[in-house]
Each structure stands twice: as C-alpha cells, then as structure tokens.
C-alpha cells in the first residue's frame, strides 16, 4: 500500500485546498464555513474560520503564487480572500448567478478563475483594479444542465467543463485586456471568449471531475456510469478512448504524470490508470491494497461486465458466476472521496504526493515515492 498520512478534521468534508507551502489546509466541514488548519508541533491546529457564506461552501481553491483563497457556495456567491496581517479579508465577486455555485479553480497565471454553477453557466472572473472588485463574464447557453467540474489548460486560455448533461466541453476564455495576444495555442489563438472548441458526447450519464495532463495534450474526465474517458488532440478531430471499471463510479481525477492518472470516488479507494507505450489506457490497481481485487478481473470497455457487477446479472438478465461478488468498501477512507489535489512544488513535472478528502471527514496524504509498479509509468 502507498504510504499514507490520515487526518480526521470533521464528520464530513465538502472540499479542501492547500496553502502554497503545504503547511496549511483550508476545508469546508459540510457547512457555510471554511476552516484553516496549520501543521505545528506534530499536530494540526485550527487557526482561522472564514465566515461570509450563508450556505454550504461547495468549492475552494488556494492560489500558489498570490496566496489568495477563492470560495464558492450554494448561496450563489463567491469571495476572494486576501490575508492582511493575521486576518483574512473577503472581496465579493460579482457572479450574477440565480443558482448555486458548484466548483471553482484558479487559472495557471492566477489572473482569472472559473466558477461552474447549477445555472448551466460558467463564470470567468477577473479583477478590476479601478473598482477594487472581481467581475465575471459568463459562458451561457452552452450547457444543458449543471456544470460540475472546471479545469484550466496550461495555456491559461482553454477551459474544460463537465456537466450533468453527460458532456465534456472545451471553451476559449480569452478576455481582451486581461490575456495578452498570442497567449493561446493554435487551437485557441483565434477564438473569441466563450467560443466552444469541442463538445465530447462520450458519456450517457452525469459527468464529473475533469483534468488536463501536465502538457495539456490529454484530457481525462469521468462519468457516473463507472467509466473514465481519455481524449488526445483536443480540437476538431479528437482521439478518444474509454476504460470501464467494474466498481462504483468515480468523482474526480488527477494526472500525476503524462501517463498516469489517479481516480477517486464512491469506491472509497484511489484507482490507478496508466497508458502504455502505444497510448492505450488501462486500469492498474487500487492504491489502498487493503481492498483486495480479483486477479482475474478484466478492465476494459465492456458495458455488459460493468453492469453485471452492478446488478449481479449478465446483459441478457441471467446470473453470471464469472462476475466477482461485491467487495467490502472502505480502507483508509470510509466513505466517498470527492476531492483529489496534487502536493508538489512549482515546476515539478511529476506528482509524487497528493491528498484526498471525502464524506468521512478525513484528509489523507498519499505518497507514491516507493510504488515501483507505478513508478515504471511515470
């Protein structure tokens, strides 16, 4: 099993984010507050409670360069928090939403951040110096349902989104006066704000977490149908493949390198996926080996096996003895994992440590340093 460090912070954690030096963690204990803990003298100490939202905080991101925290909530509001002396001071963000804000992420250059919402809208927010506030430009009429995930391309222009309409989309977020000309790739350099670069109709169920690879050449996202999707050459002619898992659906994903992805979700156990030399992705193993998986399990794109695992039946409706019985859930995490974040220094190409949090109220730090079978793919 990968080396782990487990910290019980609450009964349930909605989301979490790390300070730039990874000595502090901000988390929402499933209410309208954000608690900030600092590691000192071999223990975690609560040092701040951010109180401004009226409903559950659904997203947190802590910028690595400017040391600012952005939060979003079901109350349809967002705040950018700046540390002044020993206090965190909020600045209101003008979102203009009529439904809950669900997720948030700073752009790589930290001059913008994206907010997904239940209003079928994505808000691209930027700072107006003359008014001393954050305003937003909206990407409307593109999604048919709630936006559940946002992910910035390394070029700071392209933004990938997932939605409960089952689709993954990529947009241009170029804002005149905020982004310099020529900052995009050939795909996005001539695109206007809000222009849809590609729409991926790979999932026929809710789509959740989405991430870009470090180079931005590959996009990964997950569906509620126990599938994970990998897309190369995002643009007019993308190359896509999927991997079906025989376990519960995933909620979020993380590229630890160009060829290795960690998926987390309802199975309470991080799952490792890797691409071989030909670019074919496959399931490798569960990271928490206390959950023993059958050596005869076959992971692929066979829907019949996945549904057989879920219902205990074959596609034709008869009992299938070849399908393994359900395994006991749990291990380090005892409930759904809903958030996964890298723990790396700026400039590092490979993520060797990452953290997860979930509905069991734990934040777990995982170390891949001595995982020889995974290291061969890194």
TrEMBL record:
Q: Where in the cell is it found?
A: Cytoplasm, Cytoskeleton
Question: Can you say where the WD repeats lie in this chain?
Answer: 50-91, 140-172
Q: Which InterPro entries match?
A: Apc4-like_WD40_dom, ARPC1, WD40/YVTN_repeat-like_dom_sf, WD40_repeat_dom_sf, WD40_rpt
Q: Which domain of life is it from?
A: Eukaryota
Does the record's keyword annotation contain Transcription regulation?
no
Q: What's the chief localization of this chain?
A: cytoplasm
What Pfam families does the entry give? Answer: ANAPC4_WD40, WD40
Q: What does this protein do?
A: Functions as component of the Arp2/3 complex which is involved in regulation of actin polymerization and together with an activating nucleation-promoting factor (NPF) mediates the formation of branched actin networks.
Q: Which PANTHER family match?
A: ACTIN-RELATED PROTEIN 2/3 COMPLEX SUBUNIT 1, ACTIN-RELATED PROTEIN 2_3 COMPLEX SUBUNIT
Q: What is this protein called?
A: Actin-related protein 2/3 complex subunit
**Naturally occurring in which organism (per UniProt):** Nelumbo nucifera
Identify the coding gene.
LOC104609009
């Amino acid at each position: 099993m990968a080396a782990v460090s487990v910290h019980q912070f609450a009964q349930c954690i909605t989301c979490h984010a790390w300070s730039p030096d990874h000595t502090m963690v901000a988390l929402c204990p499933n209410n309208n507050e954000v608690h900030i803990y600092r590691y000192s003298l071999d223990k975690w100490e609560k040092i701040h409670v951010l109180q401004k939202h009226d409903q559950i905080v659904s997203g947190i991101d802590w910028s690595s360069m400017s040391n600012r925290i952005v939060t979003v909530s079901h109350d349809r509001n967002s705040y950018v928090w700046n540390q002044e002396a020993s206090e965190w001071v909020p600045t209101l963000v003008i979102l203009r939403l009529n439904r809950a804000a669900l997720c948030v992420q700073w752009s790589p250059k930290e001059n913008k951040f994206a907010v997904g919402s239940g209003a079928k809208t994505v808000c691209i927010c930027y700072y107006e110096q003359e008014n001393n506030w954050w305003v937003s430009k909206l990407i409307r009429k593109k999604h048919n349902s709630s936006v559940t995930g946002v992910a910035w391309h390394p070029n700071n222009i392209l933004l990938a989104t997932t939605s409960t309409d089952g689709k993954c989309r990529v947009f241009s977020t170029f804002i005149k006066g905020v982004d310099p000309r020529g900052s995009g790739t050939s795909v996005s350099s001539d695109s206007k704000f809000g222009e849809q670069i590609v729409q991926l109709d790979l999932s026929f169920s809710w789509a959740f977490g989405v991430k870009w690879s470090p180079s931005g050449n590959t996009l990964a996202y997950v569906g509620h149908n126990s599938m994970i999707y990998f897309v190369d050459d995002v643009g007019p002619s993308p190359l896509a493949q999927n991997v079906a898992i025989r376990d519960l659906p995933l909620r979020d994903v993380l590229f630890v390198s160009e060829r290795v992805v960690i998926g987390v979700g309802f199975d309470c156990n991080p799952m490792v996926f890797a691409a071989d030399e030909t670019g074919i992705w496959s399931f490798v193993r569960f990271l928490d080996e206390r959950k023993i998986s059958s050596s005869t399990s076959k992971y692929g794109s066979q829907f019949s096996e996945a549904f057989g695992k879920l219902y205990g039946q074959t596609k034709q409706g008869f009992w299938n003895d070849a399908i393994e019985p359900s395994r006991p859930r749990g291990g380090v995490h005892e409930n759904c994992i809903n958030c996964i974040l890298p723990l790396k220094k700026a400039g590092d190409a490979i993520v060797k440590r990452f953290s997860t949090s979930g509905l069991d109220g734990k934040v777990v730090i995982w170390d891949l340093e001595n995982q020889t079978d995974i290291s061969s793919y890194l």
